[in-house]
Write a structure and sequence with these properties.
DUF892_YciF-like; elongated; mainly alpha; Ferritin-like; YciF; Ferritin; about 80% helix
Length: about 160
């Protein structure tokens, strides 16, 4: 897609967000299946369901703009998936990010994506049928990120006192 206008930029970022969410849905399922910590697994399973709703909202945004949903690959998202596959193959390698770190990176990417889309939507004065689904997705992504950060904070404390599951 050639990006020549702000509308083109919005469309391009929307397609990338759609790709990210669809890919993240699959990644959440894979990560949840392999998770050993119950709180982390539950969070991933819940977020997988939430991600399906987010995909539907993005499809609504495409419809509001008179476009068919289309995903555009991004190297960043593909890199997160590759990191997960490396983690699954070499779990004891210190240079390979762990599942929690990968989930945190994915959520941070999605938060930034929605913030960017909302800034562009504001500049374009898009109506509520475009803005509200993006705001809802952003709020859910921020909540998921906060929950992951809580796990990240609590896990070392629990391990230090000998509590593992």
């Amino acid at each position: 897609m050639n990006v020549e206008t702000i509308e083109d930029l919005f469309g391009s970022r929307l397609q990338r967000a759609y790709y990210a969410e669809r890919t993240h849905a699959e990644l959440c399922s894979e990560m949840a299946a392999d998770a050993t910590a119950g709180d982390f697994r539950d969070l991933l399973e819940d977020h997988r369901t939430e991600t399906d709703d987010q995909i539907g909202r993005l499809e609504d945004v495409f419809a509001a703009l008179g476009r068919r949903p289309r995903a555009s690959r991004t190297r960043t998202v593909d890199g997160l998936v590759e990191s997960w596959h490396q983690h699954a193959e070499a779990a004891d390698e210190p240079a390979v990010p762990g599942a929690l770190e990968i989930a945190l990176m994915a959520e941070r990417l999605e938060v930034r994506t929605y913030e960017s889309l909302l800034r562009l939507a504001g500049r374009l004065a898009y109506a509520d049928d475009v803005v509200e689904p993006l705001e809802t997705n952003l709020a859910e992504e921020r909540a998921a990120l906060e929950a992951l950060e809580t796990i990240q904070t609590e896990r070392p404390v629990l391990e230090a006192v000998g509590i593992t599951e």
